[in-house]
Amino acid sequence: MLCGQRVVLRPIEPEHLPNYVRWFADPEVLAYFGPYRPMNAAQEKDWYEQQNRDRSMVNFAIEYDGRHIGGCGFGRMDHANQNAEVGLVIGEKSLWNQGLGKEVLATIVAYGFDYLNLHRIYLRVFAQNQRAIHAYEQVGFVHEGRFREAEWRHGQWQDMLYMTGLTQWRRKPATNDTN
After folding, report:
1. Which of 27, 111, 135, 143 could be 102's S-S partner, Cβ–Cβ 3.0 to 4.6 Å?
2. Pairing of strands 67-78, 156-166
3. What is the pTM of this model?
């Protein structure tokens, strides 16, 4: 279990799966999230079982005020090169725009650097998702590249931005303060 100031990240359990089915059936939630189509209960169960076996993934349920509100995790973990892709979704739309995503990202990124010994954490974000981009920048992610017309969404090709955080950006510079 990982604790932020307001959020708790804990292992995903089978009882969380109906929430993912509900969230991923909502076009607003899916607008900027990875899957391009809703998933049914059987597909979510298959995903849950697969991600529990896959060493390249670490996923968490996000809780706020004792309630399951979303999910986050690392995928594409490359242990040899100490890097992974991070992602998150706040499925409960009533909690959007309250800084919870930024707190979740800061919490999981700290876990990735401090406990998983990652050196580089990256993410992909649709260029139109300005709310998410702003949150990622506030956590310390920087723009690394743009893949033009990378994915088809909402009847048009969308650009995908790649952003990265490195351990060296998290370290505080040493001071020679003798006072």
Report:
1. 135
2. unpaired
3. 0.86
